[in-house]
Amino acid sequence: MISVNLSQGTSLPGWTTVLCLLVGATAACLWFRFPLTRSTRALSSVKPTSDSTRSARSGVSLRQVNLDKNEANTDIDIIAIHGLDTKSPDTWVWVDPNDPNNTVNWLADRRMLPSRVGAARIFTCDWPADLRQQSSVPTTLHESAQSLRDSIQHLKANTTRPILFIASCLGGIILIKALEIDNQHTKDNADSPSLTRTTRGVVFLATPFRGTAFKNMPGLLLKALAALQDRTVTALIDYTLGATPDLDELTKGFITLTKNHNYQVVVFWEARNTVLLRKFHLAWIVSTWILLAWLVALTSAWLLDLFSPWLLVFFLLWLPVFLSCQPQLLVNKYSATLSDFKTQRLDRPHVMMNKFAHSNCTNECKKDCTESDDFGHVSRKIEVMLKMIREGSPLEQADGWIRKRHYTQEKLKIERLSGDTLSMDRCYINLAIIGEPRENPEKGSETDAAPHKSPFSLTARLKVETPEKNIQVELSSLFDPRKDSEGQTTNPRRILIHGRAGVGKTTLCKKMVHEFTRRSGEFRKWNELFDRILWVPLRRLKAWSSPLYNLEGLFCYEYFDQHLNYSILAKELFRTVDSNGQKTLFILDGLDEISQLLDDNHPKSSLLKHLLNQPSVIITSRPHVSLPRGVHSPDLILETVGFYPAQVVEYLRATFIDAKTVEDIESYFQMHQLVQGLVRIPVQLDALCYTWNSFEDKTIPGTMTAMYKAIEENLWKKDIVRLEKRTQRQIRVVRRPEISNSAEDEVQLLEILAFTGMHSDVIDFEPRHRDAISEQYNPTGTNFFLDEMLGHLSFVRTSDPSSKDRDRNYHFIHLTFQEYFAARYFIRRWKAKQQLNCLQLSGGNRNYIEPATFLQEHKYDPRYDIFWRFVAGLLDADGEALSFFQTIEKEPRDLLGPTHQRLVMHCLSEVERKESNFTGLRARLENQLEQWLLFECDFMGSSILAREMECPEQVLVSTLKQASEGARSIFLDSLSRRTAVPSSIIKIASSWLNDCASKRLCIAVLGLLRHQRHGLPQEMLQGIAARLEDQDADVRRAAIEALQGRVDLPEEILQGVAARLEDQDAFVRGAAIRALQGRADLPEEMLQGIAARLEDQSAFVRPAAIRALQGRADLPEEMLQGIAARLEDQELVVRRAAIEALQGRADLPEEMLQGFAARLGDQDTYVRRAAIKALQGRADLPEGMLQGIAARLEDQDAYVRGGAIEALQGRADLPEEMLQGIAARLEDQHEYVWLRAIDALLNQAELSLNVLSPYVKSFCKALLRKSFEKHLYWHASDRGFIGVNLTHIPLSGSQHEGKEAVKLLLKNGATTVAMETDSRYYT
């Protein structure tokens, strides 16, 4: 046993001296050879790849390293963040240990990462990461993360471009802290740029989520090394020493964030050891050579008898350092990985986790080289992440999937009866407001005698009449502001659209989706209002089965069932809709088809009502369905109407290349007014176009029934080929009986389906309806299946072609086709003298009834009106109309009479006029109808029956001839309300103009001719002109109105009209002015004649003269002066007309502008409004006029006050008192006014705090309300400003400058607002 004697050997002072020399020499070597401020691998040879952009405030800089890319040709940014105690680009650069000049930056080298990322910019982010800081206050994690977040937001110009981060070591911890800070900021400021939203993925390279091996390093050593250079150790070192509660919370929050935003995350962990002291260039202290040196020294000292206890003490002090600082994993797998993320091992030490030498190994590589493998692991993961990022965020993926994969061309296709696809440009969708009051035209206007259609006419029943202008709505302007019934301006967002079957409700939905996804310029506002359209065919909900019915499940079922990540996309879309529903427009198609699901006890009821209550929604339905209880009322109710006449012509021209064919069809329409009304139904026009060419060698149908028979024949030709019953070659020569025989079973089944549906009031045939029909009607000898057969027929369609045949609902292409086939069933039974099989689909009850009995029971039922027309037409074609009309005439009869006459009249319109056994009865029926027309004129003072297009022409002529002079006037007045009057009537009536002794009759004839705009022969025009000299003023006026608007008037007739400008009757003079108004080729003397009427004594004539001169660019100065003189007129309507006539002219002299200014104080509200509008936008107004406008800020009328604000808005030189007047309007009670006021203030180049101070409460409240609608914020920095989109409006003042003044205003204003709202939400 060896004993140590402390008194032996070298003395303590000697060993102390030796030890001090040893330590001093070591320190000197470290100081001079390994400066602490220099990296062990100097990269002086590595030149910067670009100029960096640095935030002076934070010291953070972004440097792009692949300079061949720019923002225009890239779509993603990659930002690489280094770790602690390093910098960019050094941390990303591999240095050849044998040749320091041989370096590779894998982020910049074109052979490395840039070759793998495609159209992406790559940046390095340099942040202050010194382990030993010069500052006496250590930098905290929050400070570093805040600095990183602010700087990236500031330095990146495009705040919406997706970002993929590559975070090395502690840089990953700082990044997730920055995202945590940004996420909280985004919650508080939803409209501000968000790093959280733009981040799409993160690659972590050895990030210590649970600390590092530095926890084994003596903390005293780190502090001592830092103290050698008068520095402090950064507080960030705490996050390397081990897992802490703060670090655990941070990582948990990041995991939640990745789930909420679906980040792509991959973590890489190191597999080779690191010598910890190498960081401080002290690795040699714990090397095996030093251990060997110690052992040699101890042994030598012992053997040479130089051993000292102090040598042993120092060895024992060194030994723990040696043991703790042995090579080990700096960030082990446990710390570098999280169970929620994909992980990948890299066979390299920590210092090399962010450096790669090459992408492909060569023969020069060492045998165990892993560079290419490790780089491949990292680059492939990045490639996969970029691919997923380019596919978009979950919301972008959802929107893209719906737009590209759901709204496919096939799904949005509009198929014509021919099988061809109809271009969306030719899909005319017309809408009209329901319940909007009609305009009330002034006396004498040209619209006061507009045609009034009969509510019993075919066009009225089919809802294809042209609505009045004031209720027409363009599809593209659906969401434009409009006034409601109370005159208040609203912004409709919830819209209900009614429409009958076949008028294009589903086409309307497809049109809306098509225009929105195509981003059509005409629909630009839709794209501004909404981020997406979600079209939900409600009928599909019936087949949907789920344990829980909610929006997320609906999105999975309807849109994403074919997507691999259906759950993620549905969840993200639901989250977006739930948080900001106004930006998503729901189109709920076919409410009438799922009415049974709205029952409160149905499991889908709650979801449906939630859908119907969406803030932005369009609901389509047939007219008989109303919104259920618990659903908010719509902002706007519309109905779909048929094509307008001009659209019919456009459709024809697009369908037929030959102009002669188009002319022939138009002529046919003119001769057959009923057909002209029918073809305004889109599917009817398509059917006629499909059939037209078959009329080449045949008589063109003259009745509605004959036209439907022709259409039916042509469609069966197509269908029997699809049913494989005839070949295409056989169809070219087939005869009608052969067609009927080929499809006999299908025809009968369609007839039964149609009649049963009519009897049960069913137009949409569900599977249960077809089941009931199949059970009751099973034609013997047939071998087809009903569902399969319906799918091959042109007469029926399904609303959901994507579903299985068995689950589909079917409806006839238009209700009239169902009525046509139902009539065919009726006459089949009528002719066979068989009972009708009346099956009630709702309850399954069935009864049999004789056709004649059915006729007697339902002949006055309005639901069967068109049905009876078809019955009459079909029986007439078979020569059996007589018995039908005889049965109609039998009891029970309408005791009142008009309804019976209307039924007879409608049925007669379908019976061709020819010699038959029906001729005698027809004559008696028409004679009876004549008597009723005469009775109606006498009893009612008008004739509604005569207005109907179905009234036979012979009856009208006969009635007119035998009527008394007084009855003729009434009768002609009624006929003038028709859309078209037979030429025979016009010819008879015009002949009476020459020798008409009755004033009333003369006016009635002129009124009739007034509405015949086309084709009046010259002799009729001369007859009208002769009445310009009539002794009676009312006749003269009627003659002028009959000539008004005709472009083909000869010069002498125009001179005759102009002569009436001097008429002694004011209404005649006014009519003459209106007749000449709008003609561009008026000679000077006629213009002078109109201008002379500016001084007319009648207040009715003067405004008419002003309007006639309005808009003419070449008016001489004296006429302008004459109009300006009317600004002082005693009649307000004249003053208003004068202002409106002059307001659009830019070259008005100052005296006319003074005339406008004088009207600012007019006693009439409308004149004051017009005066302000006339002065608005003129840049050179003198101070006095501006003062006059400013005085109107106190006007009693809200629209005058608002107009005054608009007139002052945007003027840069407004004095402070006027701005104060505008600011005072912030406290106006009328919303229209204070909205104009805030807009005017936000349009100023600078705002004075002196102006705002008295009204700061109202100002803050107005800003707060508008900030929900647009990008608007109040920034209180060193220099306060208000931000409006990209514009900053500085705040200035004299009493409290800069930031203090802004804070004072915010304190006063915002506190008040907070008291009035909820301080939990506004502080």
UniProtKB/TrEMBL annotation:
<dbReference type="InterPro" id="IPR055496">
    <property type="entry name" value="DUF7068"/>
</dbReference>
<keyword id="KW-0812">Transmembrane</keyword>
<keyword id="KW-1133">Transmembrane helix</keyword>
<dbReference type="InterPro" id="IPR029058">
    <property type="entry name" value="AB_hydrolase_fold"/>
</dbReference>
<dbReference type="Pfam" id="PF05729">
    <property type="entry name" value="NACHT"/>
</dbReference>
<dbReference type="InterPro" id="IPR026003">
    <property type="entry name" value="Cohesin_HEAT"/>
</dbReference>
<dbReference type="Pfam" id="PF12765">
    <property type="entry name" value="Cohesin_HEAT"/>
</dbReference>
<protein>
    <recommendedName>
        <fullName>NACHT domain-containing protein</fullName>
    </recommendedName>
</protein>
<feature type="transmembrane region" description="Helical">
    <location>
        <begin position="12"/>
        <end position="32"/>
    </location>
</feature>
<feature type="domain" description="NACHT">
    <location>
        <begin position="493"/>
        <end position="623"/>
    </location>
</feature>
<keyword id="KW-0472">Membrane</keyword>
<dbReference type="Pfam" id="PF23238">
    <property type="entry name" value="DUF7068"/>
</dbReference>
<dbReference type="Pfam" id="PF13646">
    <property type="entry name" value="HEAT_2"/>
</dbReference>
<dbReference type="InterPro" id="IPR027417">
    <property type="entry name" value="P-loop_NTPase"/>
</dbReference>
<dbReference type="InterPro" id="IPR011989">
    <property type="entry name" value="ARM-like"/>
</dbReference>
<dbReference type="InterPro" id="IPR016024">
    <property type="entry name" value="ARM-type_fold"/>
</dbReference>
<feature type="transmembrane region" description="Helical">
    <location>
        <begin position="282"/>
        <end position="304"/>
    </location>
</feature>
<dbReference type="InterPro" id="IPR007111">
    <property type="entry name" value="NACHT_NTPase"/>
</dbReference>
